[in-house]
Every structure is written in structure tokens, then in C-alpha cells.
Amino acid sequence: MGRELETQVLENASKFVWELILDNNGMGKEINQTVERVFCKLSDHEPPLFPPQEDADDANVKDNAREESRAEKEEGREVKIC
């Protein structure tokens, strides 16, 4: 029973730590920024390595709009993209 309890506690602790790391607010954001800063310093890269999530989301929306526009043009309908 002791091993089962130990395994369950470790699994719960691991899950909690991963939730902290993957959270883009609070500690997860700080961890990601620190890792990126250290990586850039050690590898002579300029930060940011990846665009902020909001910028990435905006780029994905524009890419999707372009793809939809191309498909509609092929069907004979023209759509203006902002």
C-alpha cells in the first residue's frame, strides 16, 4: 500500500508541475522566458525565438483567410482580404 500511495502522490505532483510549466500565465511564462533567454545567450541567437502567442494566432487567422480566399477564387467567387 505504501508504494501505491507513493506512486499516486508522485503522479499528482508531476501533473501539477507540468500544468505550471505549460501555463502561459504566471510561472509557466517565466519558465519559458528564462529558458529562451538562457538558450539565446548560449547559442548566440537573438530573442525572441518564437513570436508571442497573440502574433502567432493572428498569423494563423490570416493564413486561413488566404486559403479560404484561394478556394473561393477557384470556385469563381472573389473575396477581399483585409
Description:
This protein is mainly α and 82 residues long. It folds into 2 domains: 1-50, no CATH class; 51-82. Helices cover 73% and strands 0% of the residues. The chain has 3 helices and no strands. The chain has helices at residues 2-22, 27-43, 53-74. The longest helix is centred in the C-terminal third of the chain and has 22 residues, at 53-74. 0% of the residues are buried. The mean pLDDT is 79. Residues 59-82 have a biased composition (Basic and acidic residues). Residues 45-82 are annotated as: Disordered.
Short characterization:
The chain is mainly α and 82 residues long. The protein is built from three helices and no strands.
Rg over CA atoms, rounded to whole Å, is: 22 Å
Distance between the termini: 63 Å
Tell me the helix content: over 70%
Taken together, the total number of domains comes to: 2
Give the ordered list of helices and strands. Answer: HHH
Our estimate of the beta-strand percent is: under 5%
Largest sheet: none
Helix count?
Answer: 3
Overall mean pLDDT score? 79
According to DSSP, the number of beta strands is: 0
Kindly name the structural category. mainly alpha
- Quick one: overall form? flat
Low-confidence stretches: none
